[in-house]
Amino acid sequence: MKKICRKLTVCLTVCMMLLAMTVSVFAAENVDWENKVIRVTGTGVPPATARTPVQGRMLARRAAIVDGYRMLAETISGVDVTGESNVGMLEVTSDVVKTKVSAVVRGARVVSEREIPGGGYEVVLEAPLFGISNSLAGAVIEPPAQPVEFPQPVPEVIPSLPADSAASNVARFSTVDNNMSSSMSPIGGYTGLIVDCRGLGLKSVMSPVIKNERGISIYGHENLNYDLVVRDGMVDYASDMSRAGRAGGHPLVLKAVSLSDNGANPVLSVADANRVLIENGSTGFLNKTSVVFLR
Q: What residue stretch is flagged as signal peptide (predicted)?
C-alpha cells in the first residue's frame, strides 16, 4: 500500500509539473508586459448542422469567443504574481481569488475579429494586467495589513555615486573631507529608477521586489499605495532605454548584480541600494512607482 501511495504521489507531482509548464508557455506567449495586457486568439468553425451560411458564421464566432475565454483562463493561471507563486496557485488556495479571476476572464473585451477563409472565425480577446476596473492585479494582489516604511540605508556602507556631474562633485567633496555624513546626503533631482537586468534572464512578475545583497527588501508592494499598485503596476519592463519613460527625464540608472527568487527580483549592491533609498528620500520616485526594469 505504501509503495502504491508513493507511486501515486510521484505521478501527481509529475502531472502538476507538466501543468505548470503548460500554463507558463501560454503565459509567455500571450502576456504583453510592456503594454500590460493579456491577449489571446480564439478560433471557431461552423458546425455541420448550420442551416445557412449566416447561422454558420454566427455559431463559428460564438465558438471562437468560447475558445478565447478558455485560452485566456489558461494563460492567466500561468501569470507569475511573485517569484514563487502564480495565479493558478492562488486560485487553488483562495475561493475569493478564483471568483475575482473568473470575473476578469468574463470581462475580457473583443479587440478584433475576422472570418477565416474556409468558413472559420477568429476573435482576439484582451484583459488588463493592471487598472482600476476589473484588472488581474485587483484580483490577485492583496493590500498589506498596514503600510511598511522603506528601510533605512545600511549605515556602515558608503552609498555609491553615479557617474554624472552632480555625483562627481559630491564624490570630490567626500574624498577631500573623508566625511561619511556627506556621502549620505542626496544628490537630488532624480525622477525615477532604472535597474538594468539585461543578460541576467529576468522573469516578469506582477509584484516584484528589489533587494540588496544582504537580502533586505528596499522596494515591494507593501511599501506603496495599494491603489497605485493596482492601477499602474509597480514597474515597467522595457527592452532598452528608449522605452523607459516611466522613470522620467533624469533617472537613476543602476546595474543589478544578480537576481533572486527564481529570477524575478533584481538584487543591487548594498552601496547602490543605499543610494536608491537616499535619493528616494529626496524626490520620492519609489513612492510614485517611477521604476523600470531593463531585460
A: 1-27
